[in-house]
């Protein structure tokens, strides 16, 4: 049998839980499908969220799950493996074989990070290998810092990092010096960044901490922090299956949405990193809230229109 909900939220991260909280408080029968794979799982803390600065991401999500439960929102630990249109609504198939139906569907499945294949890097990610100065810069301030380039976009990251450390080395790795523009070189020099050509061979670790970066030629540069930008891969399979219009960006393909999070498919919404690359936790919560409130309004108006039509037909 197919269970019916007013709203199904696929993804139990910050965006999904935020949407569910709004919908639960609006007395909407809501289900959250959570595979339990948050993007920020490697991080011990999250920063820049007013009143929650430094909180563990795991604790943040645990509190969120407790809050939505107060309002009758159901949460199931499972994975949505397929979705389709069902009249004006949607069906969602879960990995355990269960199928649920929704009048409105929120995709908050986020994205996954593909790390550069440098030996030792993945094991340190979220510790002394980091990716965002706004997320981690304060905690690693004033330390000897490296920035790993996997594209010329790494120049921007290297320049930004100098606000937190004045000892920054920019490891070109997969970028040749000829790819750097005159403006790139001028700004790097003005910021005091040392440009290091050559491929990075591995990270040097001692006593469970990063101590250096070894190049392919054997040279070791003493560093205690390394910024490395992962390649973001949006978890957009369900959006593709449902025919949502996607827009290609340098960071992957994301759905075209309006200011509320509505995709090109009526009744299909996207929030958090499923809707864009640059959604930090605080932004994801806002996106989820906005989508939740908009969905409640859509359902209310649809029900009122249906009642009015039924009354007119019965007159």
Please describe the structure with a list of short key phrases separated by commas or semicolons.
315 residues; alpha/beta; FAD/NAD(P)-binding domain; 7-stranded mixed sheet; 5-stranded parallel sheet; 29% helix
Walk me through the structure.
It is built from 8 helices and 19 strands. The mean pLDDT is 96. Strand 5 and strand 6 form a beta hairpin. The chain is elongated. Helices cover 29% and strands 29% of the residues. Helix 1 runs parallel beside helix 2 and helix 1 packs parallel to helix 8.
> H/E series, N to C?
EHEHEEEEEHEHEHEHEEEEEEHEEEH
Number of helices: 8
CATH class of the largest domain reads Alpha Beta
* Tally of strands: 19
Number of domains: 2
Give Rg in angstroms: 23 Å
Structural class based on helices, strands and sheet pairing: alpha/beta
Q: How helix-rich are the residues, as a percent range?
A: 25-40%
Distance between the termini: 36 Å
Mean pLDDT: 96
Please state the overall shape, judged from the principal axes of the Cα atoms: elongated
The assigned CATH architecture of the largest domain is 3-Layer(bba) Sandwich
Tell me briefly what this model is.
The chain has helices at residues 14-25, 57-70, 121-124, 133-136, 154-161, 182-190, 237-241, 281-314; strands spanning 3-10, 30-34, 74-77, 80-86, 89-94, 99-107, 111-114, 129-130, 145-148, 168-171, 194-196, 200-206, 209-215, 220-222, 225-228, 231-234, 246-249, 252-255, 268-270.
